[in-house]
């Protein structure tokens, strides 16, 4: 499972940070940061979701008010 985070879309509500510890608040920039995320395009970060953390990653995506977070299964199908 992988997670994709569009930092450009993020509005800094930080709801994702309460759901998954891999998202942290960056108050200086008014955006969340995805720890260990690889920037694949400008402002788009991707990382694998560690085993056992799938639920938390999905919840982080579900609570994002601007849909800046997407979760994909191992086949590349979007879950959230």
TrEMBL record:
Which InterPro entries does UniProt cross-reference here? Fe-S_cluster_ET
Organism superkingdom: Archaea
Give the SUPFAM superfamilies listed for this entry: 4Fe-4S ferredoxins
User: What terms describe the molecular function in GO for this protein?
Assistant: iron-sulfur cluster binding; metal ion binding
Q: What Pfam families is this protein classified in?
A: Fer4_15 (PF13459)
Keywords of this protein's UniProt record, alphabetized?
Answer: Electron transport, Iron, Iron-sulfur, Metal-binding, Transport
Where is the secretion signal located?
none
Q: Which PANTHER family match?
A: FERREDOXIN
Q: In its UniProt entry, what is this protein called?
A: Ferredoxin
This chain's source organism reads Haladaptatus paucihalophilus DX253
């Amino acid at each position: 499972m992988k997670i994709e985070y569009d930092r450009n879309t993020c509005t800094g509500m930080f709801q994702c940070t309460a759901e998954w510890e891999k998202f942290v608040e960056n108050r200086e920039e008014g955006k969340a940061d995805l720890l260990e995320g690889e920037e694949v395009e400008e402002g788009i970060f991707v990382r694998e979701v560690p085993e056992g953390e799938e639920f938390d990653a999905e919840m982080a995506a579900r609570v994002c008010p601007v849909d800046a977070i997407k979760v994909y299964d191992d086949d590349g199908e979007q879950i959230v």
